Automatic annotation (TrEMBL):
Name of the protein described by the UniProt record: Phosphohydrolase
Matching SUPFAM superfamilies: HD-domain/PDEase-like
UniProtKB keywords: Hydrolase
Family annotation (CDD domains): HDc
Gene Ontology molecular function, alphabetical: hydrolase activity
Residue span, HD/PDEase domain: 22-140
One Pfam match: HD
Length: 223
């Protein structure tokens, strides 16, 4: 099978598997991450097949929606790629990307230290979709999906969270900006990713300023 045919089959598999997914983790999230990956990869020395498959399969079974089981996604990806007779070396690398891409992982001191240029590109591509205009939309969509408050001045953000606390947090959605979104620009791996993140970061700062101005136009002290 050609690389293009493998990618085409994978796209169909992912579209089918993610039918009905929450709006921030659906096929269009995958499509944007795939496009970001191809865009960033133009300036990096990477195996484009590995990076493409990593992007397409990175959220195939997001642990948030599987009772926290982080082993299902990598297994599903490996089983699918094996059914297409993809090279074992490619499969192993894609599985490592899926296992290591998540932000939560970076909060875990015992997390694996695996890295590769392909992981770095896909991770940047995924992080870019978590910030800027789209990142804001996804974050409020997720908060709505979980029935969270938009904002609550009495509940401050919790910095320095453990991976477990981060996963369990039911805080208002605005807190997620401080707990994750605003931290991402300093975690980008590639030059292209850093430049794109800087612009999206500034957009979020402007957004937050406007949000608070609208929340409290008469300047009353919050209690
Ligand atoms: P990762 O897979 O990188 O650890 P997540 O899947 O936890 O990241 O988050 C992906 C996106 O889902 C976030 O960028 C955000 O838009 C949304 N999201 C996840 N957790 C929350 C939360 N607690 N509040 C609001 N949005 C969230
Ligand atoms: Ni993702």
């Amino acid at each position: 099978m050609t690389d293009d045919a493998i990618i085409e089959e994978t796209i169909q598999f992912v579209k089918e598997t993610l039918k009905g997914a929450e709006g921030g983790h659906d096929w269009f999230h995958i499509q944007r991450v795939f496009r970001n990956t191809l865009f960033i990869a133009k300036d990096e020395k990477v195996d484009v097949l590995v990076a493409s498959l990593g992007a397409l399969l990175h959220d195939i079974a997001d642990a948030k929606f599987y009772n926290g089981d982080e082993t299902i996604g990598p297994k599903m990806a490996a089983t699918f790629l094996t059914s297409l007779n993809v090279d074992q070396k490619v499969i192993d690398h894609v599985v490592k990307i899926i296992e290591n891409i998540s932000y939560k992982n970076s909060l875990d001191p015992n997390a694996s230290t695996f890295t590769s240029p392909e992981l770095q590109v896909v991770q940047d591509a995924d992080r870019l979709d978590a910030i800027g205009a789209i990142g804001i939309a996804r974050t409020f969509n997720y908060g709505g999906f979980k029935n969270r408050e938009l904002y609550n001045p009495a509940i401050p953000p919790n910095f320095n969270q453990s991976k477990e606390a981060y996963k369990k947090s039911a805080a208002p959605t605005i807190n997620h900006f401080y707990e994750k979104l605003l931290l991402l620009k300093d975690k980008m791996n590639t030059q292209t990713g850093k430049e794109m993140a800087a612009q999206r970061h500034q957009f979020m700062l402007n957004y937050l300023e406007q949000f608070y101005a609208e929340w409290n136009p008469i300047g009353v002290k919050e209690d």
